[in-house]
Amino acid sequence: MQFYVGEALVGDGNEVAHIDLMIGSKDGPVGVAFANALSTQSEGHTNLLAVLEPNLAVKPSTVMITKVTIKGFKQVVQMFGPAQAAVAKAVADAVGEGIIPKDQAEDLVCVCGVFIHPEAEDDEKIYNYNYEAVKQSLVSAMGGKPTADEMIEKKDAAAHPFKGF
Fold it and tell me: Could you tell me if residue 16 is inside a domain?
């Protein structure tokens, strides 16, 4: 496998979760992106590993990248708290449920873009929405969804929720 891509939007309000992810081989382009994400940090964009608890990182190794500039300690705590816990649990459950084959967990890496709205307040919603969005993204990625035929079939009726008009 070179790599697969998944995406999901779950929830509403300021706690809405939008996940973009890539999963692929350590020795492929996702492996390069994974290494770059961990080694290239910048102010407001602190990338972090998905861990179930300290000293228990998930497999496939997963790096979370911020999709917005983190401003303030509240957002930092939300990223390193409910969002990190949700991403880690979703990846672990995906392996446990066979969405990601267990025998490939050491050979794959995941790069997961996470959105935390600056005005998000409800940590439980942040956790629940991000868990579900990561899980849906992994199911889509590993299942090759949507297919080109599915995209073509729905393209003219698609209603983007943030289109603005």
Answer: yes
Asked whether residue 1 carries a pLDDT value surpassing 80, the answer given is: no
Range of the domain at 76: 3-149
49 Cβ contact list (under 8 Å, min separation 6): 38, 57, 61, 62, 63, 64
Is there a domain that residue 67 lies in?
Answer: yes
| pTM, to two decimals | 0.95
Here the CATH number for the domain that contains residue 78 is: 3.30.230.60
Q: How large is the average pLDDT for residues 99-111?
A: 97
- In a domain? residue 99: yes
How many angstroms separate the CA atoms of 83 and 99, rounded? 21
pLDDT (tens digit, 9 = 90+) per residue, 62-93?
Answer: 999 999 999 889 999 999 999 999 999 999 99
The angle at the Cα of 108, spanning 102 to 109, to the nearest 5 degrees, equals 125
Beta-sheet pairing, 48-49 with 51-53: unpaired
Which residues have a catalytic role annotated? Answer: 18
Residue 156 lies in a domain: no
